[in-house]
Write a structure and sequence with these properties.
6 helices; six-stranded parallel β-sheet; elongated; 12 strands; 249 residues
Length: 249
Amino acid sequence: MRILLLAGSGEARAIASGIAAMEGVEAIASLAGVTERPAKLVLPTRVGGFGCDGGFRRYLEDSAIDAVLDATHPFAARISARTAAICAGKEMPHSIFWRREWRPGPRDRWHLLDRAEEVAAVVPEEATVFLATGTRDLEGFANLRGRRVFCRGMSAPSKRFPFAEGEYVIDRPPFAVEDEVRLFRRLGIDWLVARNSGGAAGRSKLDAARAVGVDVALLRRPPVPATTVLKTVGEALAWVRGLKSSVAS
């Protein structure tokens, strides 16, 4: 049995390691190529997009893929929707790893929104804003002009910072809560803008926002595709073992 693992989430590395240890399962991992110097996976890995829907179909056929496990980022909506639709059309086993969302606790000051364009409606014009949404999606926050804006990314983009006040903050995770607290205080952050990605790795910025008293504009996730949904690494590996057993029988 040959599985295609669409990687991109932090948990994809653990899933890849678990699959690699299974006898009778061959797997290929795929990364979209949007992250510089991604952590290596233990599986053979291809990097880059598939070009189009037809390109993805051809890859599945040419590589003799039997099943697809989507462990991309929860906000990779286009990739996940396309994958689910194509696999359904081919009647190919498919699942998506969909880690649990973050939930607010006492003293959290979260404002839940659906789109980046809605952030300006809740963030005051005099606020200092920290965008923890990456540098690739800045155009969605164009209506934040007039605020002081900082945007964190893992590498410095070639284009100029699009806001008159503010700058890029270049750093790579993981980020400890105490480091995030120091950063927010040093920059004088009033508002944090983040996506509800879930998972332990990215939670520190929200815990720091609570500690400092920073408001959070939190973007809701896109809808999960209609397919088998896996909430933990254990569930993902159990799904693969179940496929293996069904093929063997």
